[in-house]
């Protein structure tokens, strides 16, 4: 599916209820997990201790932090939608966010999105995007929810 190009609120609103697209697959490797652990001061063994995880983890591997999975959303979102004619984009909030299953180190994930709701608030476009971060080869997503963004069109 090609990247969706949006130039106005009206264009964006015309996609209400539609699947907007999906990102490329992205591998979540141990190096990415370790860097996230360092950045967030969260070195819990199930994420960073490969040898211990092989023995003690129910997954027999390290797993990505749930918030690492969430933090990939903006990177993958920009692969799906490109919005032109805006002054600013603001992350407004998350609703109904659920971690469905862990991302085992070495897995690949992608973002799948649908335009859930859209409102024009005096020239500010409030877009709520239903999302799933899927794990390749798995039926249940790693993360689901509704992300809301504010687009300030020119």
Shape-level CATH architecture: Roll
Radius of gyration: 17 Å
State the oligomer: single chain
Low-confidence stretches: none
Major β-sheet, in short? 6 strands, antiparallel
Question: H/E series, N to C?
Answer: EHEEHHHHHEEEEE
- The CATH topology annotation reads as Thiol Ester Dehydrase, Chain A
User: Helical element count?
Assistant: 6
Total of domains = 1
What general form does the structure show? elongated
Assign the CATH superfamily. Hotdog Thioesterase
* Share of β-strand residues: 35-45%
Structural class: alpha+beta
Q: Terminal Cα separation, in Å? A: 28 Å
The amount of helix comes to 10-25%
- Number of separate strands: 8
Domain MaoC-like: 12-124
Protein name: MaoC family dehydratase
Organism: Segatella copri
Task: Offer a quick outline of the entry.
This is MaoC family dehydratase. With 154 residues, the chain is an alpha+beta fold.
How would you describe this structure to a colleague?
About 25% of the residues lie in helices and about 40% in strands. The protein has about 150 residues and is α+β, with helices and mostly antiparallel strands. Strands 2, 3, 5, 6, 7 and 8 form a 6-stranded antiparallel beta sheet that branches. This is MaoC family dehydratase.
What's the structural blueprint in terms of helices and strands?
Elements: E1 4-6, H1 9-13, E2 19-22, E3 26-27, H2 30-40, H3 45-48, H4 50-56, H5 66-71, H6 73-77, E4 81-83, E5 86-99, E6 108-121, E7 124-135, E8 143-153
Parallel strand pairs: 1-4
Antiparallel strand pairs: 2-6, 3-6, 5-8, 6-7, 7-8
């Amino acid at each position: 599916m090609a990247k969706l190009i949006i130039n106005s609120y009206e264009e964006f609103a015309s996609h209400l209820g539609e699947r907007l697209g999906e990102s490329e697959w992205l591998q979540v490797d141990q190096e990415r997990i370790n860097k996230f652990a360092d950045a967030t001061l969260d070195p819990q063994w199930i994420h960073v201790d490969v040898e211990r995880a092989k023995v003690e983890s129910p997954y027999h591997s390290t797993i990505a932090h749930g918030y690492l999975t969430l933090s990939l959303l903006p990177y993958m979102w920009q692969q799906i939608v490109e919005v032109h004619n805006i002054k600013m984009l603001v992350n407004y909030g998350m609703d109904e966010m659920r971690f469905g299953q862990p991302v085992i180190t070495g897995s690949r994930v992608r973002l799948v999105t649908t335009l859930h709701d859209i409102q024009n608030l005096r020239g500010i476009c409030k877009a709520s995007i239903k999302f799933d971060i899927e794990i390749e080869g798995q039926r249940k997503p790693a993360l689901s929810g509704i992300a809301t963004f504010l687009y300030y069109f020119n």
